[in-house]
Amino acid sequence: MIVNLPLVLLRKSVGVRCKMVKIGNIQLPDFPLLLAPMEDVSDPPFRAVCKDNGADLMYTEFISSEGLIRDAIKSRKKLDIFEYERPVGIQIFGGDEDSLAMAAKIVEVTNPDLLDINFGCPVKKVALKGAGAGVLKDIDLMVRLTSAVVKATSLPVTVKTRLGWDDKTRNIEEVAERLQDVGIQALAIHGRTRTQMYKGEADWTLIGKVKNNPRIKIPIFGNGDIDSPEKAVEYKNRYGVDGIMIGRAAIGYPWIFNEIKHFIKTSEHLPPPTIEDRLFVCRKHLNKSIEWKNPVVGINEMRRHYANYLKGLPNIKEFRNKLVTLTTEEEINAVFDEIAKTYGCYEFEKTPIELVNYHEKCPVE
Ligand SMILES: Cc1cc2nc3c(=O)[nH]c(=O)nc-3n(C[C@H](O)[C@H](O)[C@H](O)COP(=O)(O)O)c2cc1C
190: CA distance to ligand 1 center in Å? Predict the structure, then answer.
């Protein structure tokens, strides 16, 4: 559903285009497309294939500030970033000023382009412990936490959050103004409340209002449910945001970034990725997984991605079953060769990208 905005807002939003977007000293292209931070998804191997396919700014998965301070191996590993990824942001979460400030200093040493604070994670283990979207219940606390991070680091600090805690407290306009006042340099807004989790459709009306608030000078990035070039252009024009952040649509379909860029430029669609394109991404993702982790873990973690990359191929099940049991890169690449031979001339149809309702079974309270 596309909600109609008052015409005046619409005109204003259309009129602000054609400018480069800056976050601190980071120069992004006009209307940048951002890869959303996604736990267990947006790791370096996945980011590598998204970068190849047009993502302009990427984020790590969220990292616990407490975990970083405790030197937890899992949290530390998530700090890995590579030169070819730039610009890249590291995202942290937490509910304590001192911990967040200390985590910011640890992050700074790894030299990302920016540091992002997560005030949007809805899952119980985070939100009900007063971090992530839990902070949306207490805007004064959110301001203090943000201010502590801004003061602790010389990196540009950005925030990613939701519209509010629930339908009665959709306070993103106040949040945006107050966070800008304490020094954040960009804001990404997911058009849902915390209690919505992933249900219903993202509502971009308030995102548009924040963007068109004359007090707001920082870039505003819209996020939620973008799954096609048409929708990206529609929302770009309707809500006037400075750029769009894409999460689920990129899972198994990193081509979404270049497809949107091409459509913005030409109003025409790129052809769907060929079997060669898909296998190239599979090989690279696998190779990077092995390089980043190790052969055993890398090959294991890659298994969940094949179904997505090879979606739409008739009778692919047998190959897929092989891919998820093999244990060496050579064997897996040999199956990719077989797939290339079998489906070399296959013409993919343009099919809508399916957005999974994550956390569907996750209790809200
Ligand atoms: C598997 C998964 C993991 C996520 N992990 C994070 C995270 O670590 N940090 C964060 O800010 N948002 C996280 N999100 C939320 C996304 O960044 C994004 O806001 C949300 O998926 C809506 O965008 P989309 O409709 O384009 O997917 C996650 C989403 C998914 C699906």
Answer: 9
